[in-house]
Specification:
Layout: E1 2-7, H1 29-44, E2 51-54, H2 58-71, E3 78-79, H3 89-97, E4 104-109, H4 113-121, E5 137-141, E6 152-157, H5 159-164
Parallel strand pairs: 1-4, 2-3, 2-4
Antiparallel strand pairs: 1-5, 5-6
Length: 168
C-alpha cells in the first residue's frame, strides 16, 4: 500500500475579517499555485491515490481538494479529525479503519504531526523527527495499517525539488 503524506501549502498568516480563528485560515494564491505545481509533479511520478483524506482545517482541506482534482482520486475527499493539529497516528489509523480498505492513500495534515505520522509508518522511535516544508510530500509503502512491519521510504519531494524537475 502506498501512503502519501503532505503538509498543507502556504496559508494566510493573520486572523481578521471573516477569518476568526486558526482553523479558518485559507491558502494564499501562492499556496494554491504551489499545491497545483506539487500535484503536477506527483502526476509525473505516477501517483494515483484511490483515497484522499484531509485534516478538517481549511488550509489542509483546500490543499487536499487541489490534489484530489489534479490526481483524480476515485473517491470523494474524506476528512479525518486525527489529521488535525495535535492528532496522533493511532487516531489517524482509527479514522482510516472506519473507511473501506484502499490501496493508495493520500493524507494532508500539519507539522509536526504529519512528520510524526511519517516516522510512525516506518516504525521509527520517538527521537526521529521528519520535518516537512509547506507543501512537501513523502511516500512510504506499508503492508498494512497500522503498520506491523517498518514501512519503506520511497521518496520525499519538496516544492524546491519539484520546481527543479519542471513540474509546472
Amino acid at each position: 500500500m502506498k501512503i502519501y503524506l503532505m503538509r498543507h501549502a502556504t496559508a494566510v498568516e493573520r486572523l481578521g475579517g471573516a477569518i476568526l480563528n486558526d482553523s479558518q485560515r485559507p491558502l494564499t494564491d501562492d499556496g494554491k499555485a504551489e499545491t497545483r505545481m506539487m500535484a503536477n509533479a506527483l502526476k509525473r511520478l505516477n501517483a494515483k491515490p484511490t483515497l484522499v483524506v484531509s485534516s478538517p482545517l481549511t488550509r489542509a482541506r483546500q490543499t487536499a481538494e487541489i490534489i484530489h482534482e489534479v490526481l483524480g482520486a476515485e473517491t470523494e475527499l474524506k476528512v479525518a479529525d486525527g489529521l488535525a493539529p495535535g492528532g496522533t497516528s493511532s487516531e489517524v489509523f482509527k479514522n482510516l479503519k472506519k473507511l473501506p480498505p484502499f490501496e493508495d492513500i493520500f493524507m494532508v495534515g500539519h507539522e509536526p504531526d504529519i512528520g510524526r505520522l511519517a516516522a510512525d509508518l516506518m516504525l521509527a522511535g520517538p527521537e526521529v523527527m521528519i520535518p516537512f516544508k509547506k507543501a512537501a510530500v513523502i511516500r512510504v509503502d506499508v503492508q498494512d495499517l497500522p503498520p506491523s512491519w517498518p514501512g519503506t521510504l520511497k521518496w520525499f519531494l519538496t516544492p524546491k525539488v519539484a520546481n527543479l524537475i519542471g513540474a509546472k
